[in-house]
Amino acid sequence: MPIAAEPDPAHGLSPTTACRCGGRSVPAAGPTRRSPCVLALAVAAWLAGCATSSVNIVPKPGDPAAYASWDCERIFDASDVVRHQAVDVAYAVDSQVGSNLVALSLGVTMFWPALLAMRPDGPEAAELADLKGRDAALRAAAALRPCGPAPDAMAASRLATLPISLGERLVFDERAGDAGPAQTLTMTVTALRRDQIEFGVQLDGRAMGQPWRQDLAGNPVLDMPVPLIGWRRLLKQDLVLGQVLAGELAAAGDLQPGARVRGQVVAIGPQTVAGRAFDVAVIELFGEAPTAGAGPGQGTNGSTRLDGVMAVDRRSGVLLRLELRCANPDFAIRRRLLRVERPLS
Questions:
Q1: Which residues of 103-126 are buried (b: 16+ CB within 10 A; e: fewer)?
Q2: Is 332 helix (H, G, I), strand (E, B) or coil?
Q3: Contact at 8 Å (CB) between 132 and 57?
Q4: Could you check whether the bond before residue 146 is cis, i.e. omega within 30 degrees of 0?
Q5: How far apart are CA 72 and CA 149, in angstroms?
Q6: What is the model's pTM?
Q7: Which of these, 310, 325, 244, 260, lies nearest to 9 by C-alpha position?
Q8: Of 67, 141, 304, 311, which has the fewest Cβ atoms less than 10 A away?
């Protein structure tokens, strides 16, 4: 099951440019860079302006007694899973109506209060009610023990399953498109948190201004302009063969997503990459990106095809390979893991 398999051609998707809100059209977020404060205000404004479709939904009652025998670590882990699932539901709804609510969020923690006020139509409403009820029951169970606040550090049991450790350096071959010059990308593990991994980033020995933070599925946390091309809500935990995925891509240095992308898991299984054992998932990607030259705030000026392949470790979300082909150079890249270096003692 080589991760070098090339994807089959497929048609992309046109990005949604606006949503309906209270009977009026609201433009979708463009590629303009925005600070976290501006994004938080944008979330609040969306909720206020779209109150007709975002009323409170009553959580499905949950029983804290169901978790009475659980220790605090297990409760915290279950809460993380519930909240990530709820954000995935919200993202699916957001993609359908073009609201860009999830696109403006700053990760699960900050997005959660906004999600509690969201009421999608259709079957997602029942699913969201169930997830909110389970979250409330887990919080009540944690208060009864009492557990206190969830720790920031990753649990030892989860650390033991990761294929990487603190201080290790992941060294990649990095190229812009098919014909770009080779560069050395180095990502050093600087923090292993309960629900995130953080890397320091260097390109040809030059430190990039921002760290790379990702959830345990492998999605970068786009609450600031990231130093590398990033993707939002594309990857899921526990990827399975044949699973269909959907997300958005943001070019390096941008905060707002600029390309819609879909994917399908075409291969899974253990594999040794760069001398390290990984549990690999290979994903074929296809979609559409804005045409080259569309500046911030100027719209997309049309779209162009995008396709490629991604390989990630299913236990940690660590990227092993990424190839994107696109006429827009912001979305054309070849990245391949060469080796993993242990920290200097």
A1: bbbbbbeebeebbeebebeeebee
A2: coil
A3: yes
A4: yes
A5: 10
A6: 0.70
A7: 325
A8: 304
Residue 13's Cβ-count burial label (10 Å; 0-12, 13-18, 19+) is middle
Which residues does residue 240 pair with via DSSP β-bridges, in sequence order?
A: none
- The overall longest dimension of the chain from CA atoms, in Å, is 63
**Cα–Cα dist 237/300, whole Å:** 31
What are the extents of the domains in the chain? 34-144, 156-341
CA dihedral of 274, 279, 281, 282, whole degrees rounded to 10: 30
CATH number of 156-341: 2.40.360
Helical H segments across 20-107, by residue range: 36-49, 72-97
State residue 58 phi and psi, 5-degree precision: -75, 125
> Over its length of 345 residues, how does the chain's per-residue pLDDT go in tens digits?
455 443 333 333 333 333 333 333 333 333 333 444 443 444 444 343 443 232 344 567 778 888 889 999 889 888 888 887 877 776 666 555 554 444 444 344 445 555 555 555 556 677 877 888 888 899 999 998 889 888 888 888 889 999 999 999 999 999 987 777 899 999 999 999 988 999 999 999 999 888 999 998 999 887 777 788 989 889 988 899 999 998 889 888 776 668 989 999 999 999 999 999 999 999 999 999 998 865 544 444 688 999 999 999 999 999 999 999 999 999 999 999 999 999 876
Closest CA to 239 of 131, 169, 185, 320: 320
270 with 315: CB under 8 angstroms? no
Residue 245 CB: number of other CB atoms within 10 A?
19
Structure-block tokens of residue 142: 């944690």
> What distances in angstroms separate CA 241 from CA 238, 245, 266, 269, 284, one per listed residue?
10, 11, 6, 10, 12
